[in-house]
Every structure is written in C-alpha cells, then in structure tokens.
Amino acid sequence: MRKRISLLFISLIVLTGLLSACQPKGETDAAANNVSKDNPLANKRIALIMQLNLGTFSAQYIAGVKEQAAKFGGHVTVFTSDGDLAKMSSNLDAAINQKFDGILIDHGTSEALQSGVKKAVDHKIPVVVFDADIAEKNVTVLEQGDQKMAEMSLDQLANDIGGKGNIVKIWVAGFAPMERRQVAYQDFLQKHPDIKEIAAFGAATENTALDTQSQMEAILKQYPHKGDIKAVWAAWDEFAKGAARAIKQAGRTEIKVYGIDLSDEDLQLIQDKTSPWVASAAVDPKDIGRIQVRYLYQRLHGDQPSEKVVLNPVFVKRDQLPEKSVTTDQLSQYVDGWGASEQGYTDYLKELENGM
C-alpha cells in the first residue's frame, strides 16, 4: 500500500512538471521579452482606463499599449467603461486601490477624472493621459495635434470643392479632442465664406457608425439632388464610416467624405474606389499606445517628462495608396511620417527593450 502511494505521489509530481512546462507564456511575460526580472522597471502592473473601447481604432490602440509594455516586461490590464463616465471614475479608483504600478487613461473628462488622478499622484502612482482635459502636476497628457488634423482634412475638402458649396459636419461635444477640432472648424468657416454648413449632427454611442449611417440617410433625403451637398467633414473615423456607407448605398458618391483618425478598417474604405471617403488626417493608433507607455515608463524611472505632449499627425489620401490592399502596418511605405515614431524613447528605455 505504501509503495502504491509513493508511486502515485511521484506520478503527480512528474505530471505537474509536464503541465507547467506546457503552459503558454503571457504576452507581457518579462522573461519572454528578455527583460531582466532584477531590473526595477520589470514586471510593472499597468492599468489602462478607457472611456470607450469601440471599433478598430481602439483595438489597434490597445494593441500598441500592450506591445510596448510587453517589450518593457510589463503587464497590462484594460478597464473599459462603455462610455459611462461614472464607471470610468470607479475604474480609476479601483486601479488605485489595487495598487497598480502605473495608470494610463484614454479619453474621459476632467469632471469625472480630476480627483481620481490627483489621488493616484498622491499615492505615488504615475499617470499618463491620452486625449482628456486633465491638468495635474506631474501628469503627462498626450494629444494628437487635433487642430492640425482638422486643418489638414478641411483644407483638402475646400480645395476639392473649389472653395464653395454646401457641407455637412459630423461632430460631438464633450470630448477634449473634439473641442479642439471644433476650433479649427470655426476658423475654417470664417476663412471660406462661400462654404456653408447646411446640417450638423453626431453622437458617441455603442453603435456610432450605424447610428451615423441612419442620420446621414435622413439628411440625404432632405437634400436629394446632385449638388445639394458637396462634401461631409467627419471629426471621428466612426462618423466617417457611417457617413460613407450611407452615401454609397444612396448612390450619391459625388459627395466626398473627409475624416480624422485611421485604422485598418478605415484604410480599406479609403482604398475602395467606390467609397466616398477619400482622405483622413491621423496618428497611427498603435503608435499612440506605444508612446503613451514610454512616457509612463519615464515616470516610473523617476524622470519628469513634459506635462503636455503633442503627437505628430499625417494626412493620408487615396491617391497616395497602391492598387493592392495595405494595412496601417504597411502604410509607412507610401505615406511619409506614418508609424514607427520615436517619441517618448530614451536611451535607457531602448536598453530595457534589449534586456539591459
């Protein structure tokens, strides 16, 4: 009996060892990324607090965050808030209480987040924010150069319609980047008195693209004749997707769409010669995530980087793109300045990636 128990015990040990050896490594495993576990920057737990996780832009942004954190030996937990600012505030509080090493914030408002961000800083947890109007000492805030992106897309629109005609604006208030884009839009209308806004709408919902499509369909019925509408300016790629689909289905492809932001799905629509969406100003969403993580790790290292960082946008037009389908990972071959940004890197962060 004793011999049988001993054999069973040995078998269990062997089986446990085999199972452990077969367990898949997590994508942010420090050892898998050659980062020494003895390094003080290794194995950091990072919380990503998001207002919305919607569409391929958000998916690619998250991928950029996770990719860069993994290279630094970090572990990312994503807290999504489904557009609910109260839930976002609660998620931020939970991240603080769970003692994450660093916190990334994606969108949100100062009213919902300011006190939580201050609490994090008071608890010595570094915070880096993307596209939220947060003003707190020792917190870095990233923005995309929103006014520049709006100017790029609007200047192309004005050029293509000859500086005159009726346009539709799709935009929504209550988001810091949207408010900055609106400033450029107001300047644009003053600069081009022969361009008239005949309709404006927009809402951030769980089905933004689909809801935008329905609203655009209604506007097309109000203005049924060719020439009634020359162009649509969409201040967000989810808006541009919905508008482009409505226009194409209505057979009104003389109306062109000019957008902001760019993901793989968006790029496919712009490459489609039957699509009304012809151009977009953007920063690579993966690069946004990567850069945000780099600034967080600067603060984890004890540095004091700038409290405001403006990312460099580029303008992507259909006539720049090849006949074959491309992804945003390949876009740098055709559009100067796209992707592979070095913003936020330091020498020690590059060494950390290489397993210093």
From TrEMBL:
Protein name per UniProt: LacI family transcriptional regulator
Pfam families membership: Peripla_BP_4
SUPFAM superfamilies for this protein: Periplasmic binding protein-like I (SSF53822)
Domain Periplasmic binding protein positions: 46-302
Keyword Isomerase: no
Alphabetized InterPro entries for the sequence: Bact_Solute-Bind_Prot2, Peripla_BP_I, SBP_2_dom
Assigned GO CC terms: outer membrane-bounded periplasmic space
Source taxonomy: Bacteria, Bacillati, Bacillota, Bacilli, Bacillales
First-listed, main subcellular location of the protein, grouped into a coarse class: other
